[in-house]
# Entry
Amino acid sequence: MAIKGRIIVNTGDGKGKTTAALGTAFRALGYGMKVCVIQFLKGQGNFGERLMASKIDNLEWHICGKGFVFNKENIEEDREVAKTGFALAEEKVSSDKYDLIILDELTYLPHYNFLNVEKIVSLLQHKPERLSIIITGRNAAPEITEIADTVSVIKAEKHAFKSGIKAQKGIEF
# Structure
């Protein structure tokens, strides 16, 4: 019997959506599976997970963003980078070379009107059957959560940032 891949969505306002996805990536890598991570909106930089990724076989990592979009003036440039990143996601999904693809912060693309949600739904509907895809980010569109096999909503009960505690190397980045 052929393996049926999953569509998993990690959404909500709490910390840990990407971290949970990367935990699944390391689980898959432990079994020798091939994993691709595409990060939308997050900009360049030395984050712990990216530094580690360069040392791991079977893990491919792409950064398709210029930094989070919060009241930016040149939103058109962000939109173009997001569209280029989504074209890369389409290429990777259709290649059928991966066992797991993580589309980190993808939920923001329709939220910011960078991409029509129907394009994401179509990508998910036409993925290779064996491929699992994890989508992360706040405000996941109902069209995406409806076709997902698993949806986890991570709720912020308390967050150190709200107490004035800055992001810590190795914990938040």
